[in-house]
Amino acid sequence: MSTSKNTNLTDDEIQSIVRRVVAQMLGQSAPASAPAPKPEPAPAAPPVGASAGATAVAPKKVVALGADHGGFELKELLKQEVAALGYEVLDVGTHSKDAVDYPDLAHDVAKAVSSGAAWRGIIVDGAGIGSCIVANKVPGVRAGLAYDYASAVNSREHNDTNVLTLGAGLIGVALAKQIVTVWLATPFGGGRHQRRVDKIIAVEKLYLK
Prior knowledge:
It contains seven helices and five strands; from the N terminus they run H-E-H-E-H-E-H-E-H-E-H-H. By secondary structure, it is an alpha/beta fold.
């Protein structure tokens, strides 16, 4: 259904609708007014002059961001959003609207996540599909394309995705921000989903040399 038919709905009304849909998908009964999950607050910096023996403050979680020229403008906006949520941003490029190839940037984000340099990764290209394919070639990466609130929640709760791909030509800025916020905040569900994710990992290991 085209979202253009819902232009009279407020953001709160739209979020209320998608929360009900997500709850139905997951077999839960959440009130429509339940707030979207929020990421854990970033740890405060240690006070100046703290003693050397004081407990170290955990570093911020790093989120790697990358985009091709088609996703550059949206990436720049999402950088601000991710930083405002309390995460450290690792921008792997591109850094202009000059034409580049999405596999290169998607690979850079996926490598950052696979190596442990980043906790999660977000890639933006025109449709989000090609970057998702590339990222899933990298061992240890589970990338998912999200296009609305429900798909973002599902990819985290069911699939434990660690890379998110977005299509700048398919979704607007407000929706992209909502997807990123809920994707970063949603925990993995575990339970029966853990068994299935373990099978995904086992398939990957069959083809590792």
